[in-house]
Design goal:
alpha/beta; Rossmann fold; GMP Synthetase, Chain A, domain 3; 3 domains; binds adenosine-5'-triphosphate; binds xanthosine-5'-monophosphate; binds glutamine; binds magnesium ion
Length: 534
């Protein structure tokens, strides 16, 4: 759903959502916000198709796409800066409703001739919003006072002519605005994040009431469309699919299987960085349950040799990305006419890798399947889930009939235990980590909490400390336990595991695993931390 190129544009041409002139839809003009896709996803929650497009998409192209409304996203720049991204000025004459969020609202006001300036006070996080006009259609069914989430340094000083203020906070006099006669709205806060309590209602008001959407779009129609698009795009060529047994690649494999059946071969790489019992589990599921043409590649030595002595997280990720592709390439030699490589890349992988060229989003970490890919790929990429979030992919998987155990499995990153074994990786340290991780997951199941947390795992730290075991001094490694709750993996909070569960995990790990004499619990949220440690 991202119109226009990414840095992989030349090899990633597959786009199934771009020619949907006849579908009721909203377009989000992306000014580089980390949460731009979240806006799209909140609109889709209203059963309305929503796609991200370049911030400067021409009015001609917008007319062709025929949206019922436009949303201007936030972004890291300042509208008064020399390099500030700007929309096509004619969008304001299209006559369709427009909602600007943060940078988007500042852009609307700037374009209407009023000054936007660095505010005296920057607002990050929670703010109390008070509506000035509670009857405004944008604020329908929203209390007069409610909590909103802000993230801005700039501020609209004076309203442009024709605009009125709809809401304020203690430091932001124009937290929400609208044009008196045109259907143009602006919000200084972010309705797309869950911390804005009535954000979904607000977007619903915009989409359903103001844009008049009927809400007929369903995840099932996305599946149908993807299946058709894949069939047409692939023709009679062959697709290899990097299959990890995780949710995303399983959904991709199921989609491809539905589309092109026998033209699909799946490649599962055993990179030596997998969890306990994972190879057997994937082999079973995908030969017994799915009956796909599955190739299991034993690349354990290859990965471990290449990673020997490497401690830098970004370097680890780059090496893993490259070796993955080399394995796919070598294995594909035995698969006749393998033209496409399908991956289960999701939107958070793309945005965190800084790979979305639509806006100047920053690189947080290079996901092995995006920023970690080598320049010369040797395949054409197909990534049907590239614009979706985990929970949307899960809904798709359930709709496609995948088993619920698979759908609700915690995500496991492609670089696997490599990014949870901090410092240099060795076979011994991996065995230690794998065993500890298995205990964490088992105890989570025992406590009936596996589905309560969205991701949990163990992290082996290169930090030794002194202990005493059986009257003898020890000087051994530290293990961290991480468990998070999150909707979409873009933001997350640490999960308050009950003490007795932590106690069982800790006792079992220290008693049964050699080399660990201390267990700690990670109590950091994302942001400012990330879910994985590297
Ligand atoms: N061991 C592997 N063998 C082959 N392909 C892999 C492997 N690990 C990851 N990949 C590829 O990289 C993509 C991204 O990995 P990622 O972990 O994000 O997704 P996933 O494993 O499919 O799902 P989940 O997020 O539930 O773990 C996968 O969808 C898959 O295409
Ligand atoms: O396939 C993947 N390749 C990667 O390189 C990668 N890095 C992080 N993750 C997963 O993404 C989600 C967000 O993780 P972070 O908060 O650590 O960025 C979490 O679910 C992480 O497990 C990855 N998945
Ligand atoms: N989140 C945003 O859109 C921020 C807009 C602008 N960069 C500011 O600081 O005000
Ligand atoms: Mg995975």
């Amino acid at each position: 759903m991202t119109e226009s190129g990414t840095h992989l544009a030349s090899i990633n041409k597959y786009r199934s959502w771009s020619d949907l002139e006849h579908e009721e839809k909203i377009l989000v003009l992306d000014f580089g916000s980390q949460t731009a896709q979240l806006i799209a996803r909140r609109v889709r929650e209203q059963d309305v198709l929503c796609m991200l497009v370049r911030h400067d998409l021409s009015v001609e192209r917008i007319k062709e796409l025929n949206p019922i409304g436009l949303i201007l996203s936030g972004g890291p720049e300042s509208v008064y800066g020399e390099t500030a991204p700007k929309p096509d000025p004619e969008i304001f004459d299209l006559g369709i409703p427009i909602l600007g969020i943060c940078y988007g609202m500042q852009t609307i006001c700037h374009a209407s001739g009023e000054s936007v300036k660095a505010g005296d006070v920057r607002e990050f996080g929670r703010a109390d919003c008070q509506s000035i006009d509670p009857n405004a259609d944008l604020f329908k069914e929203i209390p007069e006072e409610s909590v909103v989430w802000m993230s801005h340094g700039d501020q609209v000083e004076n309203l442009p002519e024709g605009f009125v203020s709809l809401a304020k906070t203690s430091t932001c006099p124009h937290a929400a605005v609208r044009h008196e006669s045109k259907s143009i709205y602006g919000l200084q806060f972010h309705p797309e994040v869950t911390h804005t309590k009535f954000g979904s209602q607000l977007l619903k008001n915009f989409v359903r009431t103001i844009c008049g959407a009927k809400g007929t779009w369903q995840i099932a129609s996305l599946i149908e469309r993807e299946v058709e698009a894949i069939r047409e795009y692939v023709g009679n060529r062959r697709v290899i699919c990097g299959l990890s047994g995780g949710v995303d690649s399983s959904v991709v494999a199921a989609l491809l299987y539905k589309s092109i059946g026998p033209q699909l071969s799946c490649i599962f790489v055993d990179n030596g960085l997998l969890r306990k019992g994972e190879v057997e589990q994937v082999r079973n599921e995908f030969t017994n349950h799915f009956k796909t043409d599955l190739h299991v590649v034993d690349a354990r030595d290859r990965f471990l040799d290449e990673l020997a002595g490497v401690t830098d997280p970004q370097q680890k990720r780059k090496i893993i990305g490259r070796v993955f592709i080399e394995c796919f390439r070598t294995e594909a030699e035995s698969i006749e006419d393998a033209h496409f490589l399908a991956q289960g890349t999701l939107y958070p992988d793309v945005i965190e890798s800084g790979a979305n060229a639509d806006g100047p989003a920053h690189t947080i970490k290079s996901h092995h399947n995006v920023g970690g890919l080598p320049a010369e790929l040797g395949f054409e990429l197909i990534e049907p889930l590239r614009d979706l979030f985990k929970d949307e992919v899960r809904a798709m998987g359930l709709e496609l009939g995948l088993p619920p155990e698979l759908i609700w499995r915690h995500p496991f990153p492609g670089p696997g235990l490599a990014v949870r074994c901090l410092g240099a990786i060795s076979e011994d340290r991996l065995v230690t980590l794998r065993d500890a991780d298995a205990i964490v997951i088992e105890e989570l199941h025992n406590a009936g909490l596996y589905r309560e947390v969205q991701q949990a795992f163990a992290v082996l730290l290169p930090v030794q400390s002194v202990g005493v075991m059986g009257d003898a001094r020890t000087y051994e490694d530290t293990l961290a336990i991480r468990a998070v709750e999150t909707d979409d993996f873009m933001t997350a909070d640490w999960y308050p595991l009950p003490y007795e569960v932590l106690q069982k995990m800790s006792t079992r790990i220290i008693n049964s695993i050699r080399g660990i004499n201390r267990v700690v619990y990670d109590i950091s949220s994302k942001p400012p931390s990330t879910i994985e440690w590297e």
